[in-house]
Each structure stands twice: as structure tokens, then as C-alpha cells.
User: Fold these one by one.
Assistant:
Number 1:
Amino acid sequence: MNVRIIKDKMMHAGVVFVTLCTLVPLFAIIYSVVAKGIGQINWDFFTKVTPNSMEAMLAVAEGKVIPGGVLQGIVGTLLIVLPATFAAVPFGIGGGIYLYEKDNSRLAAVLRMIVDMIQGLPSIILGIIVYLWVVVPMKSYSAIAGSVAMFIMMLPMIVRSTEETLRMLPNNLREAGLTLGGTNFRVMMRVMLPSAFGGTATGILLAVSRVIGETAPLTLTILGSANVCYDPREPNSAVSLLIWEFYNDPNMQSLIWSAALLLLVIVLLLNLLAKKLSKG
Amino acid sequence: MNQYPIMKIKNLSVEYAKGKPAVKNINAEIMNHTVTAIIGPSGCGKSTLLRAMNRIHELYDNINVTGEILLDEENIFRKSPIIVRRKIGMVFQRPNPFPNMSIYENVLSGYTLNGIKLKKSTKNEIVQTNLESVGLWDEVKESLQKKGTFLSGGQQQRLCIARALALRPQVLLMDEPTSALDPIATKKIEELILQLKNRVTIVVVTHNMQQATRLADSSMFMYLGELIEYLPTYELFNNPKNKKTQDYISGNFS
Ligand SMILES: Nc1ncnc2c1ncn2[C@@H]1O[C@H](COP(=O)(O)OP(=O)(O)OP(=O)(O)O)[C@@H](O)[C@H]1O
Ligand SMILES: [Mg+2]
């Protein structure tokens, strides 16, 4: 056999091996989350709040599933992530447009630096900052504070994905719009942004799926809640935060996995949708 | 038809970098309802000259344009760039229909981008007449709501021409409009250019000398940013005065 063919076979085997090395842990994680979490997934899981530690202990002692669910976390997550997304989308897209249009200006350089800095900031530090800026002046932990933290986390991701997708469009598209007598603004709104829809939407979905699993900044901003709460000025709960709380309660162990499964499915769906949109 | 110079270029220079003009001190007059070709070796400034004519250069920092261009005796650099660009349309080398718009919307995009609202019946009429003028109507009338990007390259280019024509420009600038197309599509665009001459003045950049002889009433030969010779096309190719022109058309350099 020829050396080139042997080399090729070895390369091929190497690639397969490395791929397996990355896939095995991934499937192991998914498998264990599903295996351990699925038992607690039932109607109550989505419609009832978390039981207290005592109830959970009794249920576990009798070998039954833990009664109740994570309703307050689901409501909290929605109450925190939705407003944050609605605010981050226009600001993020606006920022992305600015960076694209005013590529060389001094303000763009500053903006780009801030964006990179926020993106590199550990989320716990962001939590501390929001604690000082929002929780302390309001004298209460609140869903609002959580939203602010999520907003700040999403912003750089949306800014960057918008800017990058705009840059990927052929330059003569913009020129074509302008040579038809369009103003910069109209060309942006009618041609560039709609043409960049796939990439921008992908960036938004990935940003949402990123923050939906965040816990650290939430411990410092929303605190947690045992009940469903619709008032954004009050402390609240979130699915990711509940996972942390379950982890700290020896009686709630199996709920950890169910809540994790819920997040995993949401994040997976968001990512699949993002992939679909980015393909146009 | 009464011929007069619709466009007068006076002392036009364009610099991408200070002190190094890519186009140097051009003087030329372009007659209305003619096709003018700009030929010359790669990098000689053909596109740069063409893009000065509808003020694209000012979209970029650092590009410096000096001199005058008169359209119907009015200096385009003293008018609103929006109005200038509406009167002087442009077709690009790569067909670039707006990917977010249907064929129908692409033809009307000049109006949308100018914020002009039209009645449904007017829109239909504009779409049909302009697609007819580029010979695309019969091919696409059943699929007007499809995206323009689904068309073949040649069809896309004709759609782009229809899009430019829809605004009824006086001048149409084309930068190597067929260089991305196959021979059959090229032939169709060439036939179209000859037809359109009746309603619009055309300036076309080409590096294909045969194309210039087929299309153009007059031709400009550029070299290193300078306009070396500007003559009726037949004269330029059969009786060039300048040595450089002779060398270029006889294929001694490209
Ligand atoms: N955006 C730009 N920035 C800096 N220099 C440029 C830019 N565009 C063109 N040039 C330079 O200006 C000169 C003229 O370029 P131009 O594109 O006008 O040539 P051309 O005749 O159209 O060439 P081609 O036949 O290859 O299209 C070239 O030397 C080119 O490198
Ligand atoms: Mg060129």
C-alpha cells in the first residue's frame, strides 16, 4: 500500500477518534440529565410551585416523586428574560448598526472596547454591579434587577452579531441602495437589516439561550422566591436559580435534574431554531 | 434626435490617497442618447471615473474628488446627492438584486428607498413596463412574488437594470455589466443596451474591446488614470492617434 493512502487512513482515524472524544462526554451529559430528570417531569412540574423541604423529604422517604414543580421559576425566568430581550434587541441592533456605519470613528472604538469588556466580564461581577446600581437604590431584590443584569449580558452579543452579519453582506448591496437615491437610513432599514435578518436573529436567540442558564448574577439580583410572583419590583425566582437552590437542599436532589432537563431542552430548541434561521 | 452633450466632465480628479490620483484631470463630454464605453487596462481608473459620475465616492471617507461634472449644465456636486443618484442610475458588475425583496419589490425598490408611496395600479404598471423593457416580463410574470435572487445571473442583471430604469434616470452607468455572465446572457444584455439608448444615455465600462465596438458610439481609452483618447468608437479602434492606444487595441498589453 502506498504511503499516501496509509497517511490518509491514519488521518481519518484520528479525526474520528477526536470527534468521538468530544461527542462521548456530550452524550453522557445529555443521557444522565434525561435519565435522572425525566422521572420528575409531569404536569405538576410545570403547574405547581416547589414544595417545602419537609414535604419533599417525606415523599422521598416513601419512595414517591417529589410533589410540586418549578412554576415560580418558569414565571420568574419569563419575567426576567422577556423584558431584557425586548430591551436588548433594539439597543443591540442599534449598536451593531452604529459600529458598522461609523467603523472608524473614535466613539465606535470606545463602544467596541466596552462591548468586548462586558463580554469578557465574569457574570458574577456583573451581578455585583447591578446589585449596587439597582438593588441597593431600590432597597429590594427584584425581577427588574435581574432583567437589567440579563440585558447587559445580552447587549454585547447582539451588537456583535448584528455588526458582523452586516459586514458579511456584499458591499455593493449598500451601494445599490444608495445609488437608487436611498438615504443611509432607508437603505439600512429596507435593505441591509432585512438581508441580515438570519444572522441577527441567530445572535438574539443565542444570547437568550446564554442568559437563560445564568445563575450567578441572579443570586445577587432576584434572590429567589418560593411563590409565583408577578410584581417585577419584588424578589423572584428563576429555573436556573432553582437548580442552585435544589443543589443546596439534600431533599430536593431529583428536582435538580428535572429543572436541568427543562433548561437543556429550552436551550437546545433555541439553538436549533438559531441554526435554522442562520441558514435562511 | 437632437444631440447635445448631456454630461460635461471638467478637470475631474479622484484621489484615494493624498497626492496619488487614481483619475487625473479628466475632461470629456458625453452626448445624450449615446453609448459611451470606457476601456483600458486593469487598474487604470475606469471604475473610479464611473463612480465619480453619481457621487458614490463621497460615501467613503478619505476619497477626494475635485473638478466638476455638469448634468444638463448643472454641477452635480452642488445638488443633492439623492437627486443626482436618482437621475444617474447604476448597474454593478455582480448582479445584486436585493435579497430580501421579491422580483416585484426589487423593481419598485427605487421608490421605496426614496420614501415614495404609490397606488397599487401604478406599482403594477411600473413593474410591468420596466420588466418588459428589459425583456424579463414574459419570463417572470408568473413568479413576481419570488425572491429576485432565485433568478439566473443574466436574469438578475436584467432585473437590476429594470430596477434602475424604474426611476427614469437620464444616465445609466454600468461597470462591466456582463463580466460575470455567460455568453448568451451577455448577448441579451448587449442587445438591451442598444435598445435602451433611445431613452437613456449609457456609460459602460468594459475590458472587452469587441464589446465596446459592438455597443459604443464613442469610446474613452484610459491609461494610468488619464484619459488618453476619446473618439467615436470606429475611429478609436481603426485610427488611434496615440501610441498607447494603438498598443492596447492591438493587444500589446492588457
Ligand atoms: N477603494 C480604493 N482605495 C484605494 N485605492 C483604490 C480603491 N479603489 C481603487 N483603487 C485604486 O485606484 C486605481 C484605479 O482603480 P479602478 O478600480 O478605478 O480601476 P479599473 O480601471 O476599474 O480596473 P479594473 O479593470 O480592474 O476594474 C487602482 O490603482 C486601484 O488600486
Ligand atoms: Mg473596475
Note: Chain A has two domains: 1-40, 71-278.
Number 2:
Amino acid sequence: MTTTETRTGRYVGAPVKRKEDRALLTGRGRYLDDLTLPGQVFMAVVRSPYGHAKINGIDVVAARAAEGVVAVFTGAELAEDWLGSLPCAWPVTEDIKMPPHFPLATDKARYQGDGVAVVVAESRALAKDAAELVEVDYEPLDATVGLAASLDDGAPLVHDELGTNECYVWKLATDDVEAAIEVADVVVTRRYYQPPLIPNAIEPRGVLAQIGPTSEVTLWSSTQVPHILRFALQLVLGIPESKIRVIAPDVGGGFGSKLDVYAEEALAIALARRLDRPVKWIEERSENSVATIHGRDFDTELTLAATRDGTITAVKADVTAAMGAYLQLVTPGVPLLGAWIYAGPYDIRNYSVTFTGVFTNTTPTDAYRGAGRPEATYVLERTMDALAVELGMDRLELRRQNFISEFPSTIASGLTIDSGDYHASLDELVKRLDLDSLLSEQRRRREAGAVKQLGVGFSTYNEMCGLAPSRILGAIRYAVGGWDSATVRFQPLGSVQVVSGTSPHGQGHETAWSQIVADSLGVDFDEVEVLHGDTAVSQLGMDTYGSRSLPVGGIALVHAAEKVIAKAREIVAHQLEVAGEDLEFDAGTFSVKGSADHSMTIKEASFAAHTAHNLPDGMEPGLEATATYDPPNFSWPGGAHAAVVEVDTETGDTRLIRYVAVDDVGSVVNPQIVDGQVHGGITQGIAAALYEEGIYDEDGNLVTSTMVSYGIPSAADLPSYELARTESPSPTNPLGVKGVGETGTIASAPAVINAVVDALSHLGVTDVQMPATPERVWRTIQEARQ
Amino acid sequence: MRHVALTVNHSEHRLELEPRELLVYVLRERLGLTGTNVGCDTTSCGACTVLIDGESVKSCTVLGVQADGAEITTIEGLAGENGELHPMQAAFHEHHALQCGYCTPGMVMAAVGLVESGRAGSEDEIREGLEGNLCRCTGYHNIVRAVAAVAGRV
């Protein structure tokens, strides 16, 4: 079914304007650096300029004597402050190597940006000035950079005590993959490298730590995960969680880069405790480039086996994934987040993926928008095009012939796709694209030998999000649960407070949660106040990542509202002296069936619940409920994307001229917000395809550590997008929702590279390394011509 | 220290500034106008864009002392006295042109400067005109819609 909007209530399904906007548009946002506490001091971190270096000694005498300096500490001097290492919550195998990772390095620096000392001073500028005076005696070491080289015998070891740079090997396979490949008519094997990406949220990270009068800790952090951070801080610092309050104020973008537990969060608390003053740290942009996690850095060999008539019989992926120098919160698990979708939306019965995690002298990698799923989808969709060429088949026909078409569908990798209609998305895409006209224009330009050639690229995809069923997470060794929570609370006079366990940073939870609750309770949108991002207010929560807020936290919210209605029903039934089942609830009012003037509003029930003058025997006063929800399955968005590019064959310059996306994210609560998520997601995938790449030299120096050298696209680089939706509601939750934060990023990079290759295929080009920069495209054309 | 007089959002301020203080920190830390955000410190991202004598400028590129005698408008000074949003703020709200909001003050100020200078006549012009302001959330699609809506009304 193709629709653009499904209305299921007064607010749900409507493009309700965001209630977050007014503050943010008038300069009243409260981001981390907008917060100031009396007596606060500033922290600056002294970082290694080397990718790999032994620390022979640190001289802090000059820094300690500098103007305004309160304290200077080396890693060795703070060693006693740490109960444990910065945690990695995803030991993906039993024998995974998990080297210690303390907030400051003591023996050697393992990546450029590794912290070795901290300076605390009365102002930001004085802290930075003094940090320059810290003299570190480094002995530079050969660095391990590059995935294949890191596994070579004799490669420099990132962690000497491990004796290897191999972190783990993880496999998932059905029984007969090799046999299926052996007997296949056609086998295509391709290798693709997906370089590091630097998330570059426009707000860099920041922290502010304060110790209260009874040693309780308040940490403000620009984080996506205040709840996870709270328990991680107990593990690092030995302070009981009950004494830690984490507050995420307005957070200026995350994309996974703030889904982590960082050294500076622990350092700020340790220093605030030692100095008895609030400690603030704000990351600089070039510091962000090295000290905040990177995404991707995957080298993948993908094999597809098929019959001559185009039935794909096996998929096999061998992936080498960079961990970087240390394991951050979910570093080893990022490949696994894609492990079940290397067959994508296609019914491929023989299935094998192998991930080898390796340590390199680079910034740690971790979840960046899509996390594991863009990496899987990229290699699959690139190889699908290659297989179509090999078979002499139309690339869309190959996809259609192999689409999963019955749902729910248990796939070879073992999970069950909840719902979908991949044919519908692709049909809608082709219609909107006007593909025939594009292909005839492409032919015309080819025949004319035009300088600017036209390419059309496709990507049909699915993904698993809505992280996640806790039992499955446990089975794959992820250390925390995947449930979430919400509280719905009527105040005595009828306004409504919602407490969210998920923690937004731009997604619009306040608006969407208000829509859902206002419809459920029959109150006005503006009567609902949504609280989030403070562990003292929201005790239960697992935070925001993996497109989970709506399909997990949103369902907890629905359940909490249902509990509130159920209690109100009991109150009304008691007061009207009828049975609860004789009451109808609609638009905020309970009426006795068949006697509509015999009624009571839910707000009147709230007042009654708070006066407690006349409640059923044994009922507790008040009207609020908390629900936690553990999803029974992942949710499975899917869809079809197309990119149209113009490639200048003389300069190699690629211009994206159209981008058309048809996504199926289940039911939609706010179509305007959903479109916004898709726009942003698509852009980050386009950026990976055409512009962005973290580049290290052989010594481990990040040569793309500024916004000048790392090519974040601007408005001038991009077209407007053409979006449509098909809607296959998820049958696993009452809202029918699936999550939308990552779909665009998952689908767009392969669509764009497929388009670039399509533009140049008549010249003999079969692949272009991403990002397809002008130089790279030009060189590829020259090589193909030789 | 240098003596500097500047007008910000119609209020006059007389300040003693260190020569190295960037205008953005003068606004944020001396005047408490934290609506103007810092994204890069290096003139790349545009989050700190303000209007100086009516022209949009990245305030991390200007020293406080250079702004002596200037008239500055920040995001806090854009809405009307009764709290009515400036047409550009209203258009950003209407078109969902912001998500996390961090680039938004700078983006709005750049857009106001662009429209007022008469260089927002087409989508291409708007996209070129906003080239110096990075947004990581919206993909610019709705920002361009919002600016075009305002430009079409002016």
C-alpha cells in the first residue's frame, strides 16, 4: 500500500509543529557550554601529537607555575582515582581481547589524541595556555595503520601485552554456504573499503561536574545516554549510581558519537572531587576530530552466488573492522549490528558473515549513524549491481526477483522480519524517478560522447532497528538491556507530565511524545510537558540510539497512558456507581454507555485521585503510571532509494542532481519529523559517498582533523530531496512504528556510488572507491581508459 | 586591556577586553548572550554567525576589539519586543528547518543577512549563500525551504 499519511488520532499522524523550536530559535537553548556554576574551573586535556609513542616522562613544573593554574595531573598521578577501566559493554566473543583503557594513558600513547595529562585553570584560555607548557618526553614508535597491515606478522602492536592486533573473530553461518557457492552457476566476489567517518556533530562534546554537600555527583554532559553513563561512571569511579545524577541538557547532535562513555566524563568528576570545585571541559573542533569516536573503517570481501536465471543462492561476507586503539562502549559490537542483514531485503538461504576486529593506532571507532547496517548495505548493494552485470540482467529485475515477499519472514541469518513490502517501495520509486526518461538521456549523452555523463544508481534495503529485545541482546553478549520506560503523570488540576527514558538530541521527542499522550488521554497537545535527559527525573531509561526511541520508548509511553486510563476508569466507575466496563472513554471523557450525559472527564478523575476524598477502597491516591517495555522483536524498516548524478569526465567532479527516496518505516507519528530524519540520514550517506573520509598517514597522524580538510557537505553541494513513503505497520507494537533515524544513511551511500559507476560504466569503470572525490573519479576514468 | 564600546541588540556596552578575546566569547561570556554557539572556533561551521552593522559575520573570526563602535544583532535580538518571532524564525519553525538547534542561531542570522542583501532569489542562490553554515541534522532541505519562503515574501 502506498500512502503519504495515515491519521490515527487528533495529533498522531499529523505534521504537528515542534514544541522544542521556540527556545532553540530564540537563543534560549541550554547547551553544555551555556551552563556556568559558581567557582567553576576549566579543564584542558594534553593529548598525544603522535599516533604511537612511548611516554618516558612528563614535566608539569612550568604548567603548574603558569598564571591561573589550579592543578595539573598526569595519568600516573590520577591512576588511583579509577576503580575500573572505561567500560566496553559488548564483549562479542568469550575470548575477545579487552585491553585496559583508563581516562589518561600512562605507558604509551596509542593514537593521536590519546590524553596523557590534564590542566585545570581559572579560565578556558588559561587552561589552554598552560596545557601548552606541559612537556611530555615522547619516544615515537612505528604505528599500525590500515586494516590488512595490522594483522601482518611483525606489525607494530597497539597493545604489546596482547601479542597480536586481532581483537576478536565472530562468525554467523548456515551449514552449507561453501557448498552452495561451489555449485552456483555464477559467483561474484567484490572487495570494498569503507573509510573512517568523523561524526562531527556541530556541538562538540562538553562536560561539567559538580560535587554536592554529601559527596553526591552531578554531571552535565553532552550525551545521548545519561542512564548508561550513570552506571558506567560507577564502574570507573566507584561512586554508587545512587549518588550520581547525570543531566543531558540540550544536546547539539550526536549521530552515535555521544553514545559513549568518554575519558573526559570520568576526569571531570575525579578532578571536581579532588579540587572541590565544579570542573568544566569543552571540546574544540580539531580535538573532536581525534578524541570523539569515528565510524566505519571496514574492509569487506563479499561473495554472492546465483543461478544463471538470477536466483541468489548464497551470500558470504568476510569483514575486517577497525576497533581503533581502544574499545569504547560498543566498539566491538558495531559490525554485529549489521550481521543479520548482509542478505538485505533478499531471500538468500545460505548465509555467512565473519568479522575480524583489529586494533590500529587510530581514534577508537564506535557507533555512527546506522552502525554496522550502512556497512552491510553498502557492500551488498554494490555487489548486487556487479552480479546483475555478470548475469546480463537488469539490476532492478535482479532485485525484484530476489525480494522477500511474504511477512513475517524468518531469514537465513535467523531473525524474523516483522513486515514490509519491498516491491511497493521500488515500484513507487521507479514511478517517481521517471526512469525511462533518465535512461534515454543517459543514452543520448553516451552516444554524443558528452563531457558530463549521467548516472542512475539504486539501493533497495532493509534494516533492523528499534534496539532491542533484551534476550537477544543478552544472547549476543551485549551487557545491557534493550527495554525502555516512560511515566505519564496527571497533575491534580489536569496538566500532564511525561517522563521519557529515551534522551533526545534533535529528534523531537517532546513533540512526538506529546502527540501520542494527548491522543491517548484526550487532552490538548500543549497540556503535555515532556521531561527527559535527567536521571534524577527519569530513573529508568536506556537512552537514544539505534532508532529505538519511538519503537521502544514510545510503546512504553502508550502502555503508561493505558495504565493511567485504567486507573481513572476505576475512579470514575466508583464515583458514577457503574461498572468499569460500562464506561466508554473518548476524547478525555468517560461516559456511561447509553447514557451520554452521565459522564466525567479524565481531568476530573485526576482531581478526585489527588483529593482522595472518594476513591475505591484500597486505591492509592494520585494518577500516574510508569511502564517499561521490552520489544519482542527488532523493527524492520525498508525501502528503495535512487540517486541521479552528473559526472564531469574531464575533471572527475560529481554533482548529485536528484535524490529520490521511498521509505517504509511503518506507521508515522509526525510526517514532518520523519521527513526531517530521512533528509538528515540521506545527507550523511551522501557525504560518505562523495565527500567525507578520515585519512591517517602511515605514522597515525589524522590529516583530516579540521572542517577544512574533512569535507562536510554544505547546502551548496546538495540538491533538494524527493521523498515518499509506503507504509507496512509493524505488527509487533500497538503504534505500528519502526524507527527512522538511520534509514537514510543506510540506503544512500550505495545508491550514490552505484550512480557514479553507472555514469562511467560505458568507459569500463566497475568501481569507484568512496568517497568519490574529483581526483579519485578522474584517476579511475584514466585507469579504465588504459 | 582595551576599552571597547559596542551596541548589541540595541543595548550599549562598554567593556575592557583582552586583545585576544574573540567576539563570540565577548557575547557569550561577558554579555551572557549564549544563544550564539561555537561549533569550530575556526570560521568553518558558521554556528556563531551574527549581524555586524547589518552584515552576517562569523563571530569567531572577529576579535572583540575589532567590533569597537559596531552595532551587533544576535539571535536574542531578532524577535520582536512582544516576543513575536522574526519571519525567518517563524519560517524555520513552520518548515521544520531545525532539529538539534545548535547550528540554528547562526543559520538563521546568515539567512536573514542573505535575504536582506537580496541574494536569495533562487534555490541555487540560497544554497550558495548558506555555503558557510554547516548543519549536520537537516540535510539543508528544510532550511532552504524556510529561507525561500521568507525570500518570496520580502
Note: The helical segments of chain B are 23-30, 87-94, 104-116, 123-129, 141-153.
